[in-house]
């Protein structure tokens, strides 16, 4: 990973994959709107930790296990669908922002990390990175380095979505606006995740 011809494309890939819309950023946007940036930081750090750990484990051989046990991938798909529907329901029904309240209905550090194992976009990112960008030479050193770079890049790229959500906080104190926003975020989460999950079940 010290070769710029490999490193720079990998960094660009990580930037695009973590900054563009997807399940993680939909969650962070909604959390930023309801909790503010500071209280969304554990979720952001959990996402970064989760994607980094996932890439590290896949790079070190977990992908071989999943290929050998397709039933395990379907089980993860079932768990992912269940958790996704729960999150979408919580977001859709979270009501208007209450600036004087201390809501706690969004995942924190552990929830953000665990969600990566049920997040199809995170799987796509990790599998693609492990297969495409990590050199075979010094593989044992390159895998943790790549995982650390991915986790580090994830923090500002995902954090921007919390800032965007936080900017809407005052606007979302009005119940009708909040209802429309919450339904839109729940729908975005479903649209970002259900098609890849469908391919898991039908592939």
UniProtKB/TrEMBL annotation:
Keywords: Cell membrane, Membrane, Transmembrane, Transmembrane helix. GO terms for biological process: cysteine export across plasma membrane. InterPro entries: LeuE-type. GO terms for cellular component: plasma membrane. It is a multi-pass membrane protein. It is found in: Cell membrane. One of its GO terms (molecular function) is amino acid transmembrane transporter activity. Signal peptide: none annotated. The chain crosses the membrane at residues 43-66, 75-92, 145-168, 180-198. PANTHER family: ARGININE EXPORTER PROTEIN ARGO, ARGININE EXPORTER PROTEIN ARGO-RELATED. This is Threonine/homoserine/homoserine lactone efflux protein.
